[in-house]
C-alpha cells in the first residue's frame, strides 16, 4: 500500500491553495490520467471558436514557447466548457465569435513564467507587452505569481471577432499587456457600464469590453479586476486543485 501511494505521488499532480511547498487538508491529489479525463477541448464543445494559443507560439511576453504547451489547443473542465458554449451562443446572436488565447494552463507553465521573471536580463518582449513597467516589479505588481487560477482548469482568456468583418474587435489593448490599461475599469465603470471620457481608450473600445464581460458573466463566469480578457467559472469544480498535466489534444 505504501509503495503504491508513493508511486502515485510521483506521477500525479499536487495541489496547494497557498504556497507551492505546503498543502492543506482541503487540497486534492488526483492521478494525472484521471484528471485529464475531466477536461475537454474547447473546439469540441464550441466548434466555431478561434484558437490563437499564444503560449504555444513565441509571440508572448516570454518570447518563447512556454513549458507544458505540447499542442496549440485549448482545454477546460467539462463544466467550464459548457458554460463557455452558452456564452458563445449568446455572442453569436450579437454577431461575434470568440477567440481563445489561453485556457487550462499547467503548473509547469506558471513555473516557466516565474523563472523568466527572475531573469532580469531577458527583456526581449518588453516593447510589446510591458514597455512602461520595470521587469523587476512584475512580482510586486502582481503580473507574475507562483500560481494561476488557469491551472485549476476553469479559467479562459479570450476576445471577440466580428463575424461580418472577420476581424478582432478593438478592445483598446492587447492580450497580456502589463499595465492599468488592461483593467476592465479603465475608462469607465464595469458595474454600470458607463463610459468615462479619458485619453486611454475610446467609448467604443470600452463598450466592446463590456459586450464580452456581460455575456461571460451572464453565463456563469466571473471577471478579473486587472485583465479584461480573463474569466473564471463561478462554481469551478476544482477550486483547490492546480493541475500539472500538459496541454495537448485528447
How are the SSEs ordered, and which strands pair?
Elements: H1 2-11, E1 13-14, E2 29-30, H2 32-37, E3 39-41, H3 42-45, E4 50-51, E5 75-77, H4 78-93, E6 96-102, H5 107-118, H6 126-129, E7 155-162, E8 188-189, E9 194-195, H7 203-218, E10 221-224, E11 227-233
Parallel strand pairs: 4-6
Antiparallel strand pairs: 1-2, 3-5, 6-7, 7-11, 8-9, 10-11
Helix pairs in contact: 4-7
Note down, in words, how this protein is organized.
- By secondary structure, the chain is α+β, with helices and mostly antiparallel strands.
- The protein has one domain: Muramoyl-pentapeptide Carboxypeptidase, domain 2 (2-Layer Sandwich), CATH 3.30.1380.
- It is 27% helix and 17% strand.
- The protein has helices at residues 2-11, 32-37, 42-45, 78-93, 107-118, 126-129, 203-218, and strands at 13-14, 29-30, 39-41, 50-51, 75-77, 96-102, 155-162, 188-189, 194-195, 221-224, 227-233.
- The chain has a 5-stranded mixed β-sheet with strand order 4-6-7-11-10, covered by helices on one side. A two-stranded antiparallel sheet has the order 1-2.
- A hairpin with a 2-residue loop joins strand 10 and strand 11.
- Helix 4 packs across helix 7.
